[in-house]
Structures are given as structure tokens and as C-alpha cells.
């Protein structure tokens, strides 16, 4: 594994005899974006914690390239509502220079929130602030646990686009967790579909059609992917539907 950043070999883990991860093997290679996808409770966060070295598996090996720097964006940020904490103070806890902090916030598009309390940020601003924090150590690998949660659909697309740009600019690798293959499709090199074991993996277009993926996520996801909204009407400002001239169809 000369070039490989992190290798997991046959990792298994159980909580009180309940298997959470079984025989997981994977390689994270330089410059690659890998997305972990799976239903709730599939073991995605647990696997991320093992990749980060925060949790030890019951069996199997984790091998990490010497000197590897990892930037981590957690799934949740717990900040006590009564504790005054500005974005500036929050990011200063990383001990990085203020110019780097400002640059990172600028790069993720939220320089304007630097003096705002963390608790007051919108979903998108919070995710971009957490992404800026993950960038601060100039990482070789970005690990992003559900980076678009709490963000609306357009914001999600923008955020995935930004993640791809950051990978291109910085040449880092990305391991991220997502719930929606179709939204992440354009932004990932490969997908690992997890449900306590690896159900299928590979190029996103291949995984999308894999019977194991379809079994987990159902045919609905395929229908959603091909559904195109034929808009035969317009809306008034108060939301009422107005048919376009010459169109009487009942398409939504
Ligand atoms: N510390 C723990 N002790 C006992 N069980 C745990 C612990 N941490 C996680 N689990 C269980 O392990 C399973 C996998 O959890 P994990 O958080 O890794 O799933 P996930 O795929 O990230 O889920 P989600 O999409 O809901 O975030 C779940 O059934 C969870 O209840």
C-alpha cells in the first residue's frame, strides 16, 4: 500500500454481540472521493470512527500512511445554547493562525459569519463553518460525516460541488457519508453501499443499478432518478395554480 492513505482489512465490530460491521475491507487512495451510503443504523458513522482511529474494531487491521493529516467534519456539533461561542472563537480552538481561519471561511463561502454565535448559524452556514474547520490543517484526507445535513436541496448540490472543487484544488482525498446517491452521484468517484457489511461498491452509475443497492433503497430511488417534472402550469404569488394557455393537463 505505498500510495494508499488508509487501508482497512477485514474489519469487524459488534456491540453486545450485535454485529455492526462485518468483514469490511477498503482502500482510500490519493485524490479519490469515496462516498459511504446506507440506511440508518448501517454502521456508517462507526466505520468513519474506525477510519479516524477513534474506535478500535474487534478484529481486522487498519493501516495508515505515515504522517497522514486528516480533516474531520463530524455529523453533529453539540454547543450549549447558554455558552456564548462565536465562529471565530470556535475555530481558534484549533490553534491555527487567524489568517488561515479567515481564508478557510472565505473558501467555504462564509467569511461573513466570523463574529456570529455558532448557535445562530443557518444549516448551510454551520456545515460550511465545519468544513472550513476541517480544512484548517491542510489535510491529505477529508472525512465528512453527512456534510449536507440540514441544508436544502439546492444548497446540498452547491456543497457537494464545493467539496469536489476543494479536492481538485488541494489534491486531497475525501471520504464522506451520504444518504442520497442521486445527489452525490456527480461528486464522487466511487460509492460503498453499507448495511453492516459492504453490499456493493464501485462507480456510482454501477452501484445505482446493482441489485443489492436496489434491494436496500427500493425501486423508488430509480423512479425518482428518472422522474422529470413537466411543469404545465404557473403559480400566482399566493400559491394558486394557473394553467398555461392551451394546457389542460393534470400533471403536477
Ligand atoms: N456506542 C454504542 N453502543 C452500542 N451500540 C452502538 C453504539 N454506537 C452505535 N451503536 C449502534 O450501532 C449501529 C450503527 O450505528 P451508526 O451510528 O454507525 O449507524 P449509521 O449508519 O451512521 O446511522 P445513521 O445513518 O442513523 O447516522 C446502530 O444500531 C447503533 O445503535
TrEMBL record:
UniProt-listed Enzyme Commission number(s): 3.6.3.-
SMART domains from the UniProt entry: AAA
GO biological process, alphabetically ordered: response to zinc ion; zinc ion transport
Boundaries of every ABC transporter domain copy: 6-220
Source organism of the structure: Endozoicomonas montiporae CL-33
GO molecular function: ATP binding; ATP hydrolysis activity
Keyword set, alphabetical order: ATP-binding, Cell inner membrane, Cell membrane, Hydrolase, Ion transport, Membrane, Nucleotide-binding, Translocase, Transport, Zinc, Zinc transport
Name of this chain's protein: Zinc transport protein ZnuC
PROSITE patterns: ABC_TRANSPORTER_2
PANTHER family: METAL TRANSPORT SYSTEM ATP-BINDING PROTEIN TM_0124-RELATED, ZINC IMPORT ATP-BINDING PROTEIN ZNUC
Amino acid at each position: 500500500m505505498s500510495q494508499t492513505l488508509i487501508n482497512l482489512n477485514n474489519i469487524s465490530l459488534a456491540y453486545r454481540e450485535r454485529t455492526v460491521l462485518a468483514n469490511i475491507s477498503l482502500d482510500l487512495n490519493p485524490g479519490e472521493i469515496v462516498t459511504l451510503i446506507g440506511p440508518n443504523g448501517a454502521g456508517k458513522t462507526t466505520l468513519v470512527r474506525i477510519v479516524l482511529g477513534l474506535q478500535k474494531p474487534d478484529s481486522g487491521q487498519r493501516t495508515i500512511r505515515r504522517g497522514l493529516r486528516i480533516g474531520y467534519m463530524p455529523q453533529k456539533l453539540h454547543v450549549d445554547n447558554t455558552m456564548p461561542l462565536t465562529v471565530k472563537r470556535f475555530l481558534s480552538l484549533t490553534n491555527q493562525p487567524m489568517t488561515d481561519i479567515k481564508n478557510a471561511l472565505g473558501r467555504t463561502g462564509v467569511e461573513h459569519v466570523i463574529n456570529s454565535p455558532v448557535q445562530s448559524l443557518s444549516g448551510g452556514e454551520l456545515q460550511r463553518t465545519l468544513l472550513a474547520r476541517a480544512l484548517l490543517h491542510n489535510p491529505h484526507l477529508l472525512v465528512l460525516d453527512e456534510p449536507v445535513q440540514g441544508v436544502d436541496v439546492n444548497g446540498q448540490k452547491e456543497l457537494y460541488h464545493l467539496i469536489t472543487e476543494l479536492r481538485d484544488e488541494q489534491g486531497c482525498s475525501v471520504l464522506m457519508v451520504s444518504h442520497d446517491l442521486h445527489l452525490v452521484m456527480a461528486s464522487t468517484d466511487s460509492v460503498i453501499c453499507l448495511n453492516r457489511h459492504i453490499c456493493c461498491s464501485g462507480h456510482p452509475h454501477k452501484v445505482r443499478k446493482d441489485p443489492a443497492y436496489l434491494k436496500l433503497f427500493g425501486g423508488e430511488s430509480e423512479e425518482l432518478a428518472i422522474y422529470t417534472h413537466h411543469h404545465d402550469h404557473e403559480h400566482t404569488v399566493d400559491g394558486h395554480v394557473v394553467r398555461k394557455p392551451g394546457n389542460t393537463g393534470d400533471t403536477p
